[in-house]
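Moderator note: this is an archived Q&A kept for reference. The question asked for a predicted structure of one protein chain; the sequence and the answer are reproduced below.
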Amino acid sequence: MSEGTTVADYLDWLSPGCTAASATAPSWPPDVFALAGALLQRSGAYMSVIAEGVGRENVASIRTLSAAWHSDVRGDVPPKVAKWWKTVIARKKHAIGEIGSAPELVSALLNLVAAADEASLGLGVGGSGKPSDADFEDAWLEILVDQNNGRSCSKLDVTRVVVLPKLHTPRSGITMRSLTHNLALYMPGEVVPHWHYFPRFENRKDLNLLLLPWPLEIDAGAVRASAGTNIAMPDRFGFFTCELRKAGESIVEHVRRVFEKARKKAGIIDAIIFPEVALVGDEYIDIARSTDTLVIGGVGQHALPGKPGRNEAAVAMPASTYQLAWKQSKHHRWRLDEGQIQQYGLGLDKTREWWEDIRLGPRELNFLSLNDWLTISVLICEDLARLDPVSDLVRSVGPNLVVTLLLDGPQLSTRWPARYATVLADDPGSSVLTLTGAGMVDRSKPLSGTKSTTKKGDRVIGLWKDAKNPPTNIILKPGSEGVILRLKRDYFEEWTADGRGDAGSTAYLLCNGFDQVK
C-alpha cells in the first residue's frame, strides 16, 4: 500500500473480487469488523475513541441493534449499520493517512466496530443455547468448515486480514485490541493461526490438571553434540540434540496407572500435561485414547546425521466419533552457552555456543476452545521468552490459559519464565502455566558464586501466574511422580476503551492449590 492509498483501495485489497467498497455493508458481523477495524488500525484513527468531539452511538443503542443483527445474520444489516457503512463509502476516495482528520468517518468506523463486536457475542466459544444464537452459531460453523482453519471472515482474503474469537480485553494502554470484547483483529504475517472448537468441558466450572514432569531423571549424555547441519557456521558454534528416552520404550501404560491414581484422588482429571520433548512419535494420541483425556505435551525426535531433530507441542483430544490431534513446531532454537553448560553439568565444549539441531517448521499457533469460557494455547520454552513473532497474535486473542512446555531448571519466581509469564498475565490477562522435567531440575546447579534459592529436596517443576495473584511455585515432593494442579474459575468485568463493559462475563483461571501423586 502506497502513501496515497484510499479507503476504496484498501477495502478492495482486503476483499478482492467481493466489491467491499460497495454501498451495501456485509451481512456477517466479523466481516464488517475486519474492514472497519483494519481501516482504523492502519490509519491509527482508533485513538480517536478517547478524544472529544467524535460522535459515538451510546452503549444501550449499540446493544439493541447488535442483538437484532446477531439473531439474523443472513438478513439485511440493521439500518444504523447500513447508514454508518454508507458514511464510510461516501469517503472512499479519502486517503488512509487522513482518516483521523475526518470526524464523521472516524465516528462511523468506531460505531461499526462496536456494533460488530457486540453482534459477535459467543463467536468461536459456543453460545448460550438460546434460540436467538442459533442462526449466528450455524453461520460461524459453516465458515469454520468451509475454510478449515477456524478464521472467522466469510469473504475476506485471510492472507491479508484475519478475525478470530477473543477472550480478554487489555486492562491498560490503548491499542486496537482495546476496542473489543469478542473479536480479535490480526493482520497476518509469518504466523498462521488455527482455531479448534471442541466443547468437551461444557459442564466444568473448575479444572484439575495432571502435571507429569517426566523424565524424572536425565543423564548428562541425553544432551549431546549432533552431527550438525548443512548450515555453514564458524567453529565457535556447534549443534546439539536431545534424546531423553531409550528407543522403543513406551510409557503409555505407566501414564495410565498414574492417571488412575490421580483420578481417585481428585475425582476428575481434565488434562494431562508433559514438558518439552518428554514424548515420542504419536504417543500423545495413544495416551489420550488410553485415558480418554485431553493430552498436551512436548514431542521430540533427536537429530540423526544429516537430518535435524524435531521439537513440537502436541495436543490430542479423544472422542467417540472424531479424534482431534495436532502438532505445532517450536518457533525458536535453544542456544546453550558456557553458563548453561556448567549449570546443567552437560558434556559439551564450554568454549563454544551450541544451537539446538531441530527442524523449524512453519510458524503456527493453535487455539483450543473447550467451552464458552476456556480457550487454551501452547508454547514451547523459547517461544515464551522470544515472543516475536507470535506476541501480536497471543495478545489479540488473549487465551484464558497459555501452557508453556520447558526443558529448563527450577521454575522459580526469580527466573526468566516467571518474568515472561507476568508479561502475558498483565496484557492481555492470560493465566500462564510453565512445566519442566524433574530430571532437568535436578541437573540444575547454582553457578559458582551464587546460592541456591530452593529448599533441599524441593523440585520446583512448574510455575503458575495469573492476572490477579503473585506467581505460585509448583513443587514435586520426594516419592511423587506427578502433581494435580487445581484451578478455579472466577469472573471479572472487563471494559473496552469506548466504555462497554462485559457484565463480568470474562473468565479468569486462578490457582486453587496442588496435590502430590505418589
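Archived answer notes: The longest helix spans residues 103-119.
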